[in-house]
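Fold this sequence, please.
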Amino acid sequence: MKVLSMSKVESASQKEPKFSRRSALGAVFVGTLTALRNWWRGTLVQAGFPVIPEHVTPQTQAAIEHGLKWLVSQKMTDGGFGRQGSYARNVGVCALAGTAFLSQRGMTGPYRRSIQECLRYLLGRAQENGFIVEAEVRTHATLYGHGFATMLLGQVFGESFDPNVRAKLKAATQLILNLQNEQGGWSYTSDPKDSDVSITTCQMLALFSARQAGIGVPREAIERSVEFLKQAQNEDGGFRYRLDDPPESLFPRSAAAVVALTCAGLQDDEVVKRGRDYLKQPHPPQELSPGQLAEYHFYGRFYATHAAWQAGKPAWDRWYPIVRDELLAQQSTSGAWHDANIGDEYATAMALIVLQFPYGNVPLLAIR
């Protein structure tokens, strides 16, 4: 099996993609939302009337602030994150940290400098063909990092309209489109049969973020990826890893698939309804042993929280207090959350994004 070589991927097209009316309206909407949000915070909040979302307790606020301060302390001088291990300086971890900072009142909030430093690192790692990747690759899953980096660029451009961010975002988006295979999904290798639900949902969210920022994304690309996910759904409503795999459903990737399909406009489709029913079912405990979280724990919590937010108030009222209390109990005295595989920076960023979901400061994560 030949591993995909990003150096051989053709460079992003120099031709400017056409903006769809929906994309243009999306960019205007995001900019207007940001302006209104900043106006609101510049009046009532500054006057002493903070807007605290439902279910966000004082303990939650304290945990968020503690976690953000710890995350800032882990940032390297070049804006990257991670000092050692397979995910050192990983662009995906940096992008998730940037998203956690962005969740705290956006580009005008108290962590705007940290967001800018994350951007500086990611833009510095953007290659000529659009691929955003760390200098020393230590994992086989580089497309995950590229996807999360592209997603952050789309959200930031919607608030900053920085032309340099737009140029890198455009090239990064085109690379994702170039890599979509004949099955309609994305994979780690050059074999289209290796397309999997997890990497596909990540690239779909990156495309949705780019489209929100006004970057042209062909409807056909979204429709093909939707068809791939539909084919991966099992009878129980969950999703298997690859199309040719046994029909085994797992909670984390099923939550990711439901989120991506909902973002694609299928919130009332039977495939999403069945997926949501699956997510409501009891699932195996997330603990492997005392003090050790199951693999994909934070990944699953991130997507399940997004899925609950999309499903509406009843689902949100049921899910958020559970995941909130779970994460508060898991936070260390330092302010960090722990993940033995990818690292504490990753775990902390994911936990902070989840806890800050009710604030709605990241447009892609706020739309229901």
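The beta strands are 287-289, 292-293. The two ends are 40 Å apart (CA to CA).
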